[in-house]
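PT: before anyone asks, these are the final sequences, not the draft ones from last week. 682 residues across everything. Please model them as a single complex and drop the result in this thread when it's through.
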Amino acid sequence: MENNSLLNVEDLKLYFRTSRGAVQAVDKVNFRLPKHEAVVFIGESGCGKTSFAKAILRLLPRNVLEYSGRVYLHEKDTMQMNDDEFRNGVRWVRMSMVPQAAMNSLNPVLKVGDQVAEPLIIHLDLTKAQALERAKEMFKKVGVPVDFLNRYAFELSGGMRQRVAIAMALITNPELIVLDEPTSALDLLTQANIMNLLKRIKKETDASFILITHDIATSSELADRVIVMYAGQILEDGDAKRFFEKPLHPYSQKLMASVPRLRETVEPEFIIGQPPSLINPPKGCRFAARCPFVFEKCKLDPPLFDLSGRLVKCWLYEPGMERAAA
Amino acid sequence: MKAKTETQTAVQTAGNGKTSGNLLLSIKDLKVWFELRRFGFGHAGYVRAVDGVTFDLHQREAIAIVGESGCGKSSLMKTILGINIPTEGTITFEGKDINLYDRSDLQWFRSQVGYVQQDPFGSLAPFMSIQRILEEPLIIHGVKDPKERLRRIRKVMEEVKLTPQDEFMPKFPHQISGGQQQRVVIARAMILEPKLIVADEPVSMLDASVRVEILKLLRGLQESHNLAVIYITHDLSTVRYFSERIFVMYAGQLVEKAPMDKLLKNPRHPYTRALLAATSDPDAENATHYKDVPPGEPPSLVNPPRACRFHPRCPEFMDGLCNVQDPPEFLPEPDFHTLCWLYDPNLDATLTSIKR
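LR: through. Structure below.
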């Protein structure tokens, strides 16, 4: 294993038990995150991107059927830790999360200052006064007026609440911050302001970021690297610049073509059909049923082919194949 | 439908240059204020959700109203649908003020205006099959013959591409996908063959790949049925594919009204410029620079800023003018209405006059 990688995920699986069968939300995901890198997970709703984030942070619901694989943080496999070790040594100490709709996830009966300071008191044994002092600094950093420390969540606007949630994730100086749809419930200008804030934080800290979003335009704001998820699996993984210039996987290409552009006159297209059910996903390539380039070999499950540093899970990129998609 | 012409003169003066058909809907100085009460009585001010909105809509014309949440766009829409009562001003549909409608007029009006809701699942009754959902408007509006009703249901399902119809009709909303649910909502809005469709964020709850499909469907229906459409959205990147004119709404007012291509190419109002700057296209370059957007949040509509409502956030703020005098509508080019002092043709004279 390389030394500069912060997180190394191998064969991560997360299946849920439902009355209709096992939902394979995350199915054998492999991925490596170096230090100080921002990686964006894009995909449509139900593709397993949020489940993936929760699997890394071990924030699991009760109906988990299978949770397996290895998640190395530096050299240490966090999957071997018990819940107490994980809670005391990893979650919110070395990795934290801004959950989806974070602005509505604040505790309504606690002052926001106390909420932001709380992880310091619990995890780093600071006194309340010290912790509040640090919270105050953090408020300045994320652009919340300091006198808001004594307010309750309902007294803050959506954008301010989002900033508070970001402050809470940053307060312990974690090495990894997972942002799950950090702007989806916000207004356009507020969204742009939050993205500006995240860009600044990324510059100022050494932390790595995992940004999860369905909004491809927003994803390009922060990404060093892009990962496309579909039906619980990673279909493409590569450098952001090359991805936005020319996505490789047919699904990525279709997804990019479906984004309405403001500054170009390209007609957006849509993808015919729907993603497969994760209860009984098709064998072989999971996108085959909607893929314009489908051929005989798609009945088999493709591996991730390496194209000079970019990974693509598609038979079209098998060495020696003539590339219809390219 | 008998149309009275008493408001017709007002309509003509507010007319917009480009006409793509007969005048269908005319809104004049519309104000919708909601009273705030303290402890259930005692007056405590007003929420000025819509504050002086004027525009015309012609047949076969698609317009987009763009604005952030809380800018009053949904209140405006509900007033057009006759759900809210205007505090001041008039809404004229086919020549008659909708607030003077009697019962039968109102029923006719409701058959003429279709409504596509934002949340498809939330707006479909969970205990009704698709067939019943689509049949209900026909029953209410007096289509007595069951065979005729079935024929119209099949026709409208064909139009929104919910085929094969027999497969979908017995299904319940939870059994179909989000995109299909939104098709049912559109079919329900279309089934009485309205002249106007009001679509409130019809695609904001849908995935990227489905979004375009639904927008294209709506656009196709608009063209094939000669519909007028009011498309309400916060997403500027989708309006290009949808509308002839764009109205930008901020704090209860339409701050800019212009044809789509002109507005996207050359936005005038600083708020419109900020909206365009905040909307990004997927491009790795975005990560290398900060976006040029004003800080702050939209103002409260209870105590909106004096004069121009955007002035506390505006990068072009001119002290003594923008915070003192309401900007009138300027026309920097034909058809391009903007509520901003920057486009006063006599700006220098105005500025000197206030300095004295």
